[in-house]
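User: Hi! I'm working on a homework problem where we have to compare a predicted structure to a textbook description. Could you give me the structure for the chain below?
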Amino acid sequence: MANIQKVETMQASSAVFFIFGATGDLARRKLFPAIYSLYREGKLSDHFAVIGLARRQRTREEFREDVLSSIKEFCRYKPSDGNQEEWAEFARHFEYKSLDIHHVDGFRELNAFTEDVEHEFSIPGNRLFYLALAPELFGSVSSHLKEGGLLESTGWHRLVIEKPFGYDLGSAEQLNEQIREVFREEEIYRIDHYLGKEMVQNIEVIRFGNAFFEPLWNNKHISNIQITLGETVGVEERGGYYDQAGALRDMGQNHMLQMLTMIAMEPPSRLVPEDIRDEKVKVLRSLRPFASSEDVSANVVRGQYTEGDVKGVHLPGYRQEDKVDPSSNTETYFAARVFVDNFRWAGVPFYIRTGKRLPVKTTEVVVEFKSMPNNVYLGQKYKLEPNLLVIRVNPMEGIYIKINAKKPGTDSEIEPLAMDFCQSCMIGINSPEAYERLIHDAAEGDSTYFTRWDEVATAWSFVDRIAAVWQEQPESLAYYPAGSWGPSAADNLLEQDGHHWWPVNGQDEDNVIWIKNNEG
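Assistant: Happy to help. Predicted structure tokens:
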């Protein structure tokens, strides 16, 4: 078998990675595969260790078998089955300790155990604590880390936490206060994994690295912007959690608004994390608030999927899902028309939508430019389609630009033409998972693509107004059959402005000529 080849690249700092919730789904599907990919690409220091922590009893050997199983199933790199020595070299960095997070004595034992591990791998006291736990445990675990002596080592200490960051602004503030009693803001890394996706990060380069985009990136040239995050799945085993959250809190407050800030932000004065995050906060603060229930009703749509048939398969409605209240009014679909009230974007509608049981799994941003005048030159005779810039984030990664061009072989017939760059199709490219980049960045102390507290608070302040109106108006819930694109009211949002949702992933664009980067 071929040896593991580690690419020479920027290595993360030597550190101990503590994975709380090491027997959970997130660790299995994302964290262990991400760490292995970083190792395979030479992005981990040789002086690292991973300590898995959970209440369940596991031996070190059983834990390492769990790690191997998760990597074989979910990692983009596969271990060399015929070379046990190479796998053993990686696996020896993994330790496991059963821990009851409610008792501080276990943290003291963990600290002594960690000091032995640090001595074995020559790690200078750098410690990264990844809490793959329920948010209500963040505060107590942080306190026990301090009381147990785990924050007394000579190196740096960083806390990585997953969303949801609270249920509303009040709960988020309470959660933040508990954590801030132990960790400074610059030591807290709040993960929104969408910010780690390759094409989301590429938005900055597309915008600020190309001279023909920046002069056009404003209300003089852009008609509207559409952000779609569609899921084909229902709530699956997350019914209990989802019925308390809904699409607005689960996706709108974080993923959707974060992508909006990346599209709308001003160029930062310096390429440093705080300057970039400053510009994102300015966008959130510029969002036009919904001042009344009438504003919410006119600009926001909430929906819930009902039974439907997709490709011959009958799908249950949301209220028939496991652990969901049969009379639930929780929304599984959220669409809104929002405005960024600053000089760059004044008057440009941003249409955002996300939902479960939609026809296509996709995350896509469509920038629609203003149309050419219809009473000048070609516009007098032809219906010219507007130009589009489409950024595909998931599952296909890439961008395409739609322009108008003369149809070959005709005298003057015009048709839309799409120039497509498919990053996912590039031969030899194995696109990194979001968690790989984010874990590496946290170990390096780069907080650029993590959410700062003022981002979280401002986003909650915006969506809380919507949630409050929905609470008062349960009858505002609309319904859509599973497998459809959501309630018709979401289409009406755009039709009122003379727009329409553009097809995603090239759906129904049979009249467009495609020029693809991967066709030679």
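For your comparison, note the following. The first helix runs from residue 25 to 40. Residues 1-8 have pLDDT under 50 and may be disordered. Good luck with the assignment!
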